[in-house]
Amino acid sequence: MKKTGFVIFVVTIYIEAWFKAPSAAAAPYQDLLFIRKLYNYGSIDNNISRVALNKCRNHLWYLTAEAVALAFFDKTISIESKRKMIVKLTNKIGSNEKIKRLNLKESEVPEFVKNEIEFFVSSETLDFFKIFNLDTEFLLNDPSDWSENLSFQNALQIVTKLKTVNDTAEKGIQLIEDYNSILTTNEEQKQFVLQIVSDYRKIFPDCKKETLKKNCDRYYI
Q1: Most buried pick, 22, 128, 174, 219, via CB within 10 A?
Q2: Among the residues of the chain, which ranges form H helices?
Q3: How far apart are CA 159 and CA 146, in angstroms?
Q4: Which 3 state secondary structure label does DSSP give 98?
Q5: Burial level of 30, CB count in 10 A (0-12/13-18/19+)?
Q6: pTM (predicted TM-score)
Q7: Which positions ≥6 away from 178 have C-beta within 8 Å?
Q8: Do residues 70 and 27 make contact, with C-beta atoms less than 8 angstroms apart?
Q9: What pLDDT was estimated at residue 95?
Q10: Which residues contact 93 (CB under 8 A, 6 or more apart)?
């Protein structure tokens, strides 16, 4: 009986999420849909639903105000939803309300799953485009025309190459946050740190001796 329940869960919920996980553009919307499916799965097996939700509800990095910008490039999101997302870009939130990770309480899940993707968008979402130096000109046009827009096409190429968060990336983000909390509270300075780390990783993609020596020689000889 337990094996049957597990198989049903894997087939109806987990497999689709697993195959779509590598897509950065799809990550915000897929996170929302995944939590919603886990909650609705309670009508089939409440125990599995509750356990899975407790495990996943605090791993919603892509639904924070900045990361949700990836959803603008998600082909599975309707044009109407993207229009609503654009409108939400004018919504400002206080600095004390900025969050880097959603901490969703179990009691909040029933209301949380009622939200649509535009709910998570705010003026802070524009920071994503600043961090990656992406032109936002396409946001002035209707989403139905984006496929023909050069600024959208260029941004899409960059987003397509992004990797979804893994353990290594999460540690890198934590390192930057620790640095920021110790040495600076200035948001602009934090963006510089992100750019420096990004450039450093391009120069030194790994920690092999030959890589470090070759690139150091190039810059210091």
Answers
A1: 128
A2: 2-9, 15-20, 27-40, 46-56, 79-88, 109-112, 126-131, 150-161, 167-183, 187-203, 209-220
A3: 15
A4: coil
A5: buried
A6: 0.69
A7: none
A8: yes
A9: 43
A10: 65, 122, 123, 124
**Across the chain, how many H-helices and E-strands are there?**
11, 0
Lowest mean pLDDT among 32-41, 61-70, 147-156, 194-203: 194-203
The alpha-carbon radius of gyration of the chain (Å, integer) is 20
DSSP3 helix / strand / coil % (the chain, rounded to 5): 70, 0, 30
Per the structure block, which two tokens stand in for 185?
Answer: 């509270």
Coil, strand, or helix at residue 188? helix
Residue 65 to residues 36, 70, 100, 122, 173: CA-CA distances in angstroms? 19, 10, 8, 6, 16
Tokens of 61: 């990095």
